[in-house]
Amino acid sequence: xxxxxxxxxxxxxxxxxxxxxxxxxxxxxxxxxxxxxxxxxxxxxxxxxxxxxxxxxxxxxxxxxxxxxxxxxxxxxxxxxxxxxxxxxxxxxxxxxxxxxxxxxxxxxxxxxxxxxxxxxxxxxxxxxxxxxxxxxxxxxxxxxxxxxxxxxxxxxxxxxxxxxxxxxxxxxxxxxxxxxxxxxxxxxxxxxxxxxxxxxxxxxxxxxxxxxxxxxxxxxxxxxxxxxxxxxxxxxxxxxxxxxxxxxxxxxxxxxxxxxxxxxxxxxxxxxxxxxxxxxxxxxxxxxxxxxxxxxxxxxxxxxxxxxxxxxxxxxxxxxxxxxxxxxxxxxxxxxxxxxxxxxxxxxxxxxxxxxxxxxxxxxxxxxxxxxxxxxxxxxxxxxxxxxxxxxxxxxxxxxxxxxxxxxxxxxxxxxxxxxxxxxxxxxxxxxxxxxxxxxxxxxxxxxxxxxxxx
Length: 456
Prior knowledge:
This protein has 456 residues and is α/β, with parallel strands linked by helices.
């Protein structure tokens, strides 16, 4: 069996052009530096364990801004600054409680309020339950079948979808739009199956959005284990009731900040490559994978360029965005100001899929630019990075595409474990692998180097 090292040295390398061989050597330096002296894991430990969950508007979010700003300054970029943005300040309140109330007994189940939800009455809310799998089923029941009841959205992940993000995309509309769709027909509350393929006791929070044309009703997520239980009991007792209590509320908006650091380009400083992750997180865990990993990887790109003595030809700019989880205010503010300043952004790259082993990059750009990216694919193969097939960017950089038509990319790590921890108390530092995390930072730095060197 031909070893991986033999394959890399004797099969791939001779196929590279002279410039690509130079790039291959530099990329090897970046990966070696990340794997031997990488600081992403240490920085993530502080962000996760010393600061913790960082919901926008919270004291923890403010501490994260301060910590990351100071950290970036120690890396000696050309500039570090804060970009002000106003963010929503939603708080969860007391721990949520819920019960399935049958004709003979009641059983406690695990729920959590969805981000942005209103509270229930102080004594909770109790009503009969209607289970639906999609909006067509909801609409077919009409007002006669929904009014005065709690709607239980129970569409599960498609287990045959190899990409868990594909499965997530097929389900998340029930979490986001379900409450208003149900309220339109007279529902008094909603319960949504958690967004995960696993059957566990952990409910997954996440954003929802009210349509102001309809009443704002309470909404929560239920663990998948208890979703299965509720569905089973409804089949034998269609008149059972569900009770839950949550005390969440929306406070006045708070002033917060994006944290920005850049190294100016030596040849084309007005051409900007933006890359980043989001500083805020849900407070149910410590926000390690969503998106502490993307934050520390972006900081690590700056450190790697300095440590390896790389002088980018184009300006590289790390942006740690605020408020991705429940508003994307930071991403919108960054794009708006960039547009107003008439800045030229040649690429925006995001890391917001966890710190798992990097497998590739998604793209959202014209075909000629995508082909240029694909011409570099062979340089990434020695590091197990091979998949450039996905399309899309990320939530925080999407406003750049909409306002300025900026080409987008996103780091694509292995996705199989991400929704085990996503938006749950399981999103902790202990679930992150140092080696996988550092590999992702090196992959980002390598792509940013190539775009800086050759443009798009």
